[in-house]
Amino acid sequence: MRSKLKLKLNFNYISSDPDDLLNTTTSDQKGYFRIYGEENEVGNIEPYLKITHSCDNGVIDPRCTITDQYTIPKEYVGRVYDMGIVSLNIAKKKHRKHCEN
């Protein structure tokens, strides 16, 4: 059985603080999720998805909290974006890992 993933849809905007939260959700047992966010801003936002999990190199380690960040392409702002299959065991550019002893 896979663990459920915690997901946060955030955005950056020039005149606001970074990491403004749009919405949160949790995946199902198979890892599927849907998330929606809306913001009323003048100008463009830069949305991104943060996925929090405990999958460390293909092994679930409950001592660890890992957060990966995925940018939502600008052309999908206001449209549906299908991320396809995301491999959590490959470290991303915006990858954070914290393990308790």
TrEMBL record:
UniProt feature coiled coil, ranges: none
Keyword Nuclease: no
Gene Ontology CC terms: cell surface; extracellular region
Subcellular location: Secreted
UniProt keyword terms in alphabetical order: Secreted, Signal
Statement: the UniProt record of this protein carries the keyword Secreted: yes
InterPro entries, per database record: Transthyretin-like (IPR001534), Transthyretin-like_sf (IPR038479)
Family note: Belongs to the nematode transthyretin-like family.
Name of the protein described by the UniProt record: Transthyretin-like family protein
Organism of derivation: Parascaris univalens (Nematode worm)
